[in-house]
Amino acid sequence: MSELVRAEQLTVAYAVQDGLFRRRIRAVDGVELGLARGEILGLVGESGCGKSTLGRAIVGLTLPSAGRVLLDGVPVPRRRPPGMRRRVQMIYQDPGSSLDPLRTVAQTLAEPLRKHSADQVAHRTRELLEMVGLGEEHLRARPRELSGGQRQRIAIARALAVAPDVLVADEAVASLDASVAGAVLNLLCELRERLNLTVLFISHDLAVVRRLCDRVAVMYLGRVVEEGPAAEVFAHPGHPYTRVLLDAVPSADRRRLGARALGEPPSPLHLPPGCRFHPRCPAAATRCGTAAPPEVRRDGHRVACHFAWQAQEV
Ligand code: SF4
Ligand code: MG
Fold it and tell me: What ipTM, to 2 d.p.?
């Protein structure tokens, strides 16, 4: 599989008020991440770790302060030409607020197609509805007349209207009931097969990521601390943070539900020296508090930890 998207040393910083002072924090800090064409990559981590900011930078909704995004190996300019903008689309957690409440489904789907003739728009709109498992009877509906699952299907259809290569889904099923969420996940799988779509699936829900994704990247305080094939990361997590996250997932083979409470992550304004995870890490040793960990690689799986894959049972 060829690489379609790459984040290269991608950094997104912004200013925040810290008491009397304005200070800059790096929500995303030197991230390296690639997506192969047609794969679904899960991006996980606690809220505030920079997942959404990274997603927005890949879509082009947030400008990087350093580093860059490449599409098919070509660096994307800071101001994306429309042809490039079209190729990466985003869907959000709450389709209720991302859809215009006054517009009908037909108007919402026609909006990205305004350069086309009326006939083309009508044809494409029907095709999009069929792709997301809805029918023509929904064309005249407004968002409030649709269920949460139907609204998310419309948001997906709207994102697909311009035939993108990449979909960034930010907590796309988090606000849906389990059965509805399952149906939307099945839809994403079908669309990936049918359109050879590449998906960056941002989620705090590891059970969902395990079911859906080919690969997983784990973020902590702006950095990717572990990345690899999903089956491999779930079976042999190499980073203590990933192990803590997995321990909190209820499943048949992992019964230690919520075994360890980590407490709140440190503020990005006051990043710990050395390994950023060390104040909360059950495996931390003295050097973790002073030296940034190296990235250790093994068969397409990488882990940023001084003790990667060691101390499995800490
Ligand atoms: Fe824990 Fe040290 Fe590894 Fe950081 S480098 S995750 S503190 S063991
Ligand atoms: Mg978020």
Answer: 0.97
